[in-house]
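Example record for the data management plan.
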Amino acid sequence: MSALLKKYFPSRLRRAESADGDTASSAPVEEQLDVKQSKLTAESESLASKEVTTAADPDLNPGGLSFEEDAAGGMGRHLGVFSCTLLIVGRIIGTGIFSTPSSILGSVGSVGASLMLWVLGFVLSFCGLFIWLEFGTMFPRSGGEKVYLEAVYKRPKHLATVIFAVNAIVLGFTAAGCIVFAQNILIVAGHTAGRWVTRGIALGVIGFVTLLHGLTPRLGVWVMNGLSLFKIIILVFIVISGWVVLSGHTRVQDPHANFRDAFAGSSHSSNDYATATFKVLNAYAGWSNVNYVLNNVKNPVRTLKIAGPLGLGICAVLYLLANVSYFAAATKEEITKSGVTVASLFFRNVFGARAQKALTVFVALRNVITITFAAARINQELAKEGVPLPFGNRFWASNWPTGKSPLPGLIIHLIPSIIVIIAPPPAVAYPFILDVEGYPSQIINFFIVIGLFWLRYSKPNAPRPFKVWWPVAIFYLAAALFLLIAPFLHPANGKGDTPPLPYYLYCLVGIAIMATGVLYWGAWRIVPRWFGYEYVPRKETLADGTVVTLFSRKKIE
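Corresponding structural encoding:
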């Protein structure tokens, strides 16, 4: 950071030094040096929470708000390295590692191929993390992909913002985690997971989380951190138990059976591997969670560079070892038929039925709280940018009612979650939701990487506190391209993993959602011009300090 300050803000440091010079004649040399050092340190700490890139090159400013305007309002910078690391861990460790290994194994057909996909997901996630680190340290403000798309794709104006907004709002739900929570609770209670009972519990969960973050924000952060630590303990316990199983001193008869001829039965369909990869990447999803809340992070550049690799590294190691434990404790057939409760199957085979029920309760403590925390900040950033929303943007961009947490942004997140929980049957909804969420995200990721290359070409001298290695970005781009094409190829079983729905339906749904964003943008920016009007932006500061962009209709002269 000090090197960047000297390179891009030499005048500020010179001013600090000249201020020290005024007292040089009356103070001892040691005192002068101490005062100078303390002032320079204070100046460096002040600039540590600044956006160096846009300060050096204002043309790169994403959106209509400056960095200071974008960071105004709310609780301020209160998240450190510890909380940010747990924010990533708590987001990643959720329904994926406890539930989806069975679905992934069913798609690719063999234990070896399944483990290889988990390794591939780990590598791809780290490649993505490094790309997002470059963008996040260049633009250390809340919003994640929204900010990076705005910085790169400035024309047509607001198009990238609106497309991302439609995708984030429509697909930014936590229905899958709520559904699995409800199913697990019913299993423990000994009740049949009926459709409406499951939905009722899921709705109660998402409602509780919304009120937790909206009305008691500090308590919400403490609960997030506590649950993240608890989930790490669960995974560590599963990993250690797996080692004991492999030693042969448990009730499992042959713990090495799945590792003999591990690739037997592997699928030869690209579609199967692409669909399974989406699920693996969904299980790793969350490594960019801090990028969405950087307005709340202390010293965001330094914190992001530490918390990102640390959080993802912890999860990757635990994920790979947990999968080995699963395959040691159960046969392929048992895992494939376990549905969304593979972790419970592990505990039943190793420790018995009572332990299975206890684990099911623990696994029910999902990442719903962490996802909701970040999603609300994204929705608030979209409202602050002026994306047209019902009832006006003042309310949706505000931190009402506490002045510290965006309850309106949480409500935006709540609405699609309720719809998805109620509408489709839970048995079909969970795997289909994973697929639908994954495809548009890959489209956005593809354009993010293209944007990275464009910025490196068009702005080679822009300040970059972190630079990703070129081959890493190219590999991630190639993987994203494969994941966009392969799902349209015919699967080996002819029907995919969400029958009776067509195997390609989730791709079409994802594309349709993004196309809806284009239409919404056209209705806002183009259609009014046909009638002689245009929308002109202005900025307004709300009572809680939040700065929001508002648009007023004006007749074209």
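Summary line stored alongside the record: The longest helix spans residues 426-458.
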